[in-house]
Structures are given as C-alpha cells and as structure tokens.
Amino acid sequence: MDAIIDAWAWLTTADHWSGTGGVWQRLSEHLELTGLCLLLSAAIALPLAFWLGHGGGRRFGGTLAINISNAGRAVPTFAVLVLLTISPVGEHGEAPTIIALVLFGVPPLLTNAYVGVAEADRDVVGAARGMGMSPLQLMFRVELPLAYPLVMTGLRTAAVQLVATASLAALAGGGGLGRIITAGFDTNNTPQVFAGAVLVAGLALLVEGALALLQRLADPRRRPRDARRTPDDERPAASPGRATTTPEMETT
Amino acid sequence: MSAATAQSCLAANEWICGEYLRSRSEELTEATVDHVVITATSIGIAVLIAFPLALLARRWRLASAGILSATTVLYTIPTLAMYALLLPMFGISVSLVICGLVLYSLTILVRNILTGLDSVPTEAREAAIGLGYGRTRLLFAVELPLALPALMAGLRIATVSAVSLTTVGAIVDNGGLGNLIYAAMDSYFKAQVLTASVLCVLLAVTADLLLLGLQRLLTPWTRAAGGGRRRVRRAAGAEGRDAVLDNRATA
C-alpha cells in the first residue's frame, strides 16, 4: 500500500515532470522512437508480406514469413540491445535502439500481413480477377480489405512490442520512459521505480486500446452492412475455422 | 604459443574467444542453470494455475470474459514495467522474476487451453457421454487429449518467451544469463555478451524442440493424418473421430 501512495506522491510532484530527464521529455522520446520505428517496420514488412503472399519466394518465402515471428520470440530483446550498443553501431547515438526496435517490429507485421494475403479467399480473388480488375485494383479493393483484420492485428502487436522494447532500451543506456525505472533502480528509489512502471504500463495499454479502437472504426468491411451478412452465412465452416487458427497463433 | 594467442583474444576484447569459454566455464554453467531453473519454475507454476483458470473460464461465461481480458492486460505490460511493478511486493529477489514470468505465461496458456477445449468436436464429446463417461473422465480421457496440440503449442510459445524474458531479470540481479550480459555491458566485454546471448537463444531452441518432441510422443494421431497442414485442417472432423477411437483403445 505504501508503495502506491509513495508512487502517487512521486507522480504528483511537478518537478518530476518538467525539465531534462523529466517525464514529458522521456515520454516524447519514447513516442518518437516508437512512432518512427513502427513506420520503418511497416515500410519494410508490408510490401514484403504482399510480395511473399503472392507467391514470391515460393514455398521458402511463406515458411520464412510464418516462422520469423517464432524465431523473433526466441531472441532476447535485451541481449540484442546490449549487443548493438557495444558494437560499432553503438557509437551513433540512438542507432542501436532504432535498429533493435525495427528488428522486433517487423516479425509480427510480416507474419500477420502474409497470412492475411495468402489466406485471402481465393474464390473472391478469382472472381475479382475475372471481372477484369487490374493487379493494383485487386490489391487495394479486394486483397487489402480481406487481409485488413490480420494486418491491423500485426500492427497492434508490433506497436505494443515496440513500446516494450523502447522501455528496455534504457537498460542499454538509451532514452525513453524506461530511464525513469532504471534510474530508480540505480538509486534504490522504489517509489520512482513503481511510478515509472505505471507510466510505461499505462502507455502500452493506451497504445493497444487506441489501435484496437482504430481497427474497429476503420474496418473496411464494417460499412456495407448487407454485404457483410451474406458471405458469413454462405461460408459456414471454412472462414471461422481459418479465423480461429491464425490469430490464435499470432496474437499470443 | 597457443596459450599466448588465446590470452590475447581476451586482451583484445574479441567477440568470439575460446579462452573466455575455458576460463569462465563455471560462471557460464552457473548462469545457465539459474536461467533454466527460473524459467522451468515459472512455467510449472503457470501451468498449475492456468488449468483451473481455463476450466473456470469455460464453465462460466462471465468468468471467461474477466479472465481473458485480465490476462490480456497483463500481457500488454512491458517486461521492465512488470518487474518494476512487482518490486514493492517482492523486493529484489528471484520470486519477483518468477512471478512476472508466471503472469506472462498465464495469458498464453489459458488462451490456448481454451482454444484446445473449444476445438474438441461435439460428436466426440457426445459419443463419450453416450458411452456413459462422467464429467471428469470426459475431461481427462477425451477432451484433454484432443486439446493437446493447441495446449502444447501454447506451452511452447510460453516457454520460449519465458527463456528470453528471464534476461530482463538482470535488473534485479536474477536474470540468469541476463546477469552476465548486464555485467559485461559497462565494460564492453564483447565475448561475454555474445556468449551469454547465444546460450540464451540455444536454450530457447532446445526447450522448443524438446516440447515439440514431447508433443509428437503424446499425440501420435496428428502424424497419422499425414500431408500438409491444409489437408489436416480440411479433414479436421474426420481426424477428430479417429482420435476418439484411438483414445478408447488406449484408455
């Protein structure tokens, strides 16, 4: 109980928020890093996922896209951050953090987007092609909307992963909100550690919640109501089976 | 001559250094054992808690929503913050790291146990009930074996994640191999950082392969279906029925 009261006292002290090393500065560092690296990861992962989803790289490409998430899980973020920091990359300011963040942001995006494109209903894609859609139209008007839920799941997973990784960067000497926690550990200041943890956890939950909301609001299949009801009725077994197998593997 | 060159790789602070492996083998073994103990304890406790939770969630819809959203929230919390949040409760101790890892593993395990139980074909369940199976026997002789693939998948993900997240425990001096990485960071001791990192990945891969082997042993019927994943998925119904027959033969 004391810890919560002390942490609250730490959080409500104005001095801790302003100035160099204050919460606002750390928060903006954290958001800048996360935002920049999410964009970089998406710029790398999404085109690659679409290319692989269309059969680029043959069998090997698909295996790679599916397994890269599992492989990423086995590599400790902390170890990668430290390795990059003490390597020559570490001499270039924030470079180790940015590289590490992109490395951990790409796998969830790539895997989910790949599954979304590769498993998009072949009948629908075939029908669209038969209607004379160009490859570009096909991508933007058929495949992307069909893959949308999984692409967004990937984006959410990646964003949360990046917020977490950015907080670990503090352990390897980087900036961000994690600094408040590590500084608290270094000075045996438990209230500060707890307060920092509340901030980091709050940010992660906020990002997750905001993206979940965005996903629901921007869902392309949400607008035409009648159009949505019919396909669900007509495909009783195939699509729910698919839907449960993939997200269950990827989101966890 | 060889001793001199080996010494020089430590002195030159090279990434790969045989002399480091030789002179610090004791320290490395100790850290690896610590790492395995922390991970295994956490996963063990998580499995023990996840089972009743999943069964509870299946029985009551209300509990299900609560348990699932609570574990999802826990899973969203970054590792560093999780350990820091537990600090007032446990102080600087190994229990802190274990508790954090248990909380992470719970999310994955509960979800996968539920998915596994949901995937049990209704026909299999009804056939067992028709044969006079009681609720407990139904659970242990029919539902759990059929839920095993999903359950083991969850266990593998949870274990691999736990091995990698243990390293962050270095912040409270209980990170297994993470301790070596953290200690070597300030002095830029390259050989130690790289060796500990590689050992950590090897641990994760080994654990994953062992669990995969265990899963193969426990679920021989999933191999009998043969062919690619697509065929298994399409033939899910038939496969399920075969599995029940297998079960009755062995049970």
Automatic annotation (TrEMBL), chain A:
<dbReference type="GO" id="GO:0031460">
    <property type="term" value="P:glycine betaine transport"/>
</dbReference>
<dbReference type="InterPro" id="IPR051204">
    <property type="entry name" value="ABC_transp_perm/SBD"/>
</dbReference>
<dbReference type="InterPro" id="IPR000515">
    <property type="entry name" value="MetI-like"/>
</dbReference>
<feature type="region of interest" description="Disordered">
    <location>
        <begin position="220"/>
        <end position="252"/>
    </location>
</feature>
<keyword id="KW-0813">Transport</keyword>
<keyword id="KW-0472">Membrane</keyword>
<feature type="transmembrane region" description="Helical">
    <location>
        <begin position="64"/>
        <end position="86"/>
    </location>
</feature>
<protein>
    <submittedName>
        <fullName>Osmoprotectant transport system permease protein</fullName>
    </submittedName>
</protein>
<feature type="compositionally biased region" description="Basic and acidic residues">
    <location>
        <begin position="227"/>
        <end position="236"/>
    </location>
</feature>
<dbReference type="Pfam" id="PF00528">
    <property type="entry name" value="BPD_transp_1"/>
</dbReference>
<dbReference type="GO" id="GO:0005886">
    <property type="term" value="C:plasma membrane"/>
</dbReference>
<keyword id="KW-1133">Transmembrane helix</keyword>
<feature type="transmembrane region" description="Helical">
    <location>
        <begin position="33"/>
        <end position="52"/>
    </location>
</feature>
<feature type="transmembrane region" description="Helical">
    <location>
        <begin position="158"/>
        <end position="181"/>
    </location>
</feature>
<dbReference type="InterPro" id="IPR035906">
    <property type="entry name" value="MetI-like_sf"/>
</dbReference>
<feature type="transmembrane region" description="Helical">
    <location>
        <begin position="98"/>
        <end position="117"/>
    </location>
</feature>
<keyword id="KW-0812">Transmembrane</keyword>
<feature type="domain" description="ABC transmembrane type-1">
    <location>
        <begin position="27"/>
        <end position="211"/>
    </location>
</feature>
<dbReference type="GO" id="GO:0055085">
    <property type="term" value="P:transmembrane transport"/>
</dbReference>
<feature type="compositionally biased region" description="Polar residues">
    <location>
        <begin position="242"/>
        <end position="252"/>
    </location>
</feature>
<comment type="similarity">
    <text>Belongs to the binding-protein-dependent transport system permease family.</text>
</comment>
<feature type="transmembrane region" description="Helical">
    <location>
        <begin position="193"/>
        <end position="214"/>
    </location>
</feature>
TrEMBL record, chain B:
<feature type="domain" description="ABC transmembrane type-1">
    <location>
        <begin position="32"/>
        <end position="211"/>
    </location>
</feature>
<dbReference type="InterPro" id="IPR035906">
    <property type="entry name" value="MetI-like_sf"/>
</dbReference>
<dbReference type="GO" id="GO:0005886">
    <property type="term" value="C:plasma membrane"/>
</dbReference>
<keyword id="KW-0472">Membrane</keyword>
<keyword id="KW-0813">Transport</keyword>
<dbReference type="InterPro" id="IPR051204">
    <property type="entry name" value="ABC_transp_perm/SBD"/>
</dbReference>
<dbReference type="GO" id="GO:0031460">
    <property type="term" value="P:glycine betaine transport"/>
</dbReference>
<dbReference type="GO" id="GO:0055085">
    <property type="term" value="P:transmembrane transport"/>
</dbReference>
<comment type="similarity">
    <text>Belongs to the binding-protein-dependent transport system permease family.</text>
</comment>
<feature type="transmembrane region" description="Helical">
    <location>
        <begin position="146"/>
        <end position="172"/>
    </location>
</feature>
<keyword id="KW-0812">Transmembrane</keyword>
<feature type="transmembrane region" description="Helical">
    <location>
        <begin position="192"/>
        <end position="214"/>
    </location>
</feature>
<dbReference type="Pfam" id="PF00528">
    <property type="entry name" value="BPD_transp_1"/>
</dbReference>
<feature type="transmembrane region" description="Helical">
    <location>
        <begin position="90"/>
        <end position="110"/>
    </location>
</feature>
<protein>
    <submittedName>
        <fullName>Osmoprotectant transport system permease protein</fullName>
    </submittedName>
</protein>
<dbReference type="InterPro" id="IPR000515">
    <property type="entry name" value="MetI-like"/>
</dbReference>
<feature type="transmembrane region" description="Helical">
    <location>
        <begin position="62"/>
        <end position="84"/>
    </location>
</feature>
<feature type="transmembrane region" description="Helical">
    <location>
        <begin position="36"/>
        <end position="55"/>
    </location>
</feature>
<keyword id="KW-1133">Transmembrane helix</keyword>
